[in-house]
Amino acid sequence: MKKRILIFVIFLFTFFIFPEKSLGAVYTLNPVQKGNLIEVKIFLNTEGKEVNALDGVVSFFGPVAVKEIYDGKSKVAVWIKKPSEREKGKISFSGIIPGGTKEEGEVFTLYFTVLKTGKLEMATEGTAYINDGTGGSLLMSETKVTLAVSFEKEKVDEITLPSDTTLPRITEKIIAQNEAMFEGKPFLIVRAKDDESGVSDISFLSLENEGEVENLKDDERFRVIEIPHPLLDSDMTSFLYVQVRDRAGNAIVAEVSSPEALISKLSPFSFENWFRKWWGFCILIVLLLLAGFFARRIIRRHGSFS
Amino acid sequence: MKFQKLLFLLLLALLPGVLYAEEFTSGSYKVKDPVLNPGEYLTSSTYTLWSSIGEVAIGTSSATSYGINAGFLFFPLATAPSLSATAGASSVSLSWTASSGFLGWTVSSYTTGYSTASGGPYTYTNVGNVLLATQSGLTNGTLYYFVVVSNDFFGNALATSSEAFATPTGSGSGSGGSGGGGGGIVYVPPLNEEVKECKEIADLNCDGYVDIIDFSIMIYWFDKTPVPKRVDLKPDRKIDIHDFSVMAYYWRERTRIE
Known about the structure:
Structural class of chain A: alpha+beta
Order of helices and strands of chain A: HEEEEEEEEEEEEEHEEEEHH
Number of helices of chain A: 4
Strand content of chain A: 35-45%
Oligomer: heterodimer
Structural class of chain B: alpha+beta
Strand content of chain B: 15-25%
Shape of chain A: elongated
Number of helices of chain B: 3
């Protein structure tokens, strides 16, 4: 009897001595195996607190490899770091939710391919940031999930991701300029959205001659860029295009600007840009001054032109 | 023998309990999750105050020449108000969110401070227990920085807001700033100096909106040093996700492309 009481007392003490830290939000994992594909939805549960930014790491250990990461249905509107396996076995990410949210919602969906039968262990950690304008943060509770995975030999070629048939949308394409950024050169800002698989990459093409947007789709000259992307001097006299591709490979191309539009709207604060815009007038003024100078000399020497 | 082992386990379990205080209560107060080192309280260019040195302690007994704080102490603490500033003619209207006190400590009044230099020194005025105030007598065209401090009943400062800034204008219209433009080149005003048209925190290109342009500017400065003053939204001389969180709070966008 005494021992039972003692055990009960120990239980009580351990309960009160090692309380759970008061944390504000949590990532939850919802893994499901479909053939040799494992789908893991990562949800944000703010536990009633209003947050507007988050970061985190999903760690995994087991006989799997990352196939794809879909973020088209994410609560995160703008990624600072898109979810990606930057370090082996760790998917890291950060982004903002403008205006904040209290509602539970998807952050992204991970797709793993099963390499062999075994045990998949996953854990999340992260920080959520309070929507109060101070940038204050909440340490999130850790989540751990273990899943028994089975490799199905006969389904090895049947790894199909959910379909995505819609094109991504380019919602913003802006050229901006600031003296302190990119050595004062103009830079390109593009914002795009894909409601299904999510935006995979944004690429850029600068052409001397105007091209047809439809014909430029999947053009090999497009190169993937980070946003913001600095423009070269040669870009300022070229036709600029961007291509946005989603995770399923659907792509859309849009023209950003033409040389005329760029030169007419360059910052008036830069002498270089001012000269580029007004060089024709500059030359004309110089020619007029020279003509005036010679005319004056002729008049002085001969009294008149005749 | 088993019982002795059990007793030993119990003692082991008790040991951390002695080291980690969890909660104190009495008939008149409750200390929940006491924090001995409450974290970074104040930062300036030359020092960071990490402890609660100099805070007013509750339950202080005093003598003619010294005060003694006996036992476990808890300190007045309140959430920082979130301040916004709107420019007017020779004046700036200030509004802020209510500051909430903890541990039964209540906010009784607010003090506004203004300065022409970021970080102060500020000229303070007690405005009472209100959430709006107007600072008048300012010079048009000069950028002013503002803070609001929540005070307890005794006038002790409990919490200070982040800095807000605004430039009073002659017309009093508080115009929406320069730049912007619909689809051309957006000129971003200098980021390291005062811009009189730029009145809203996080609106880095001063177009009246906090959107993807401002976000992209912030991304450029992410992990770079030194950081321009206007980009460092949570002033700590670095750009990290805390600054993005401040930006997300003020986010207000327009659709540029249909």
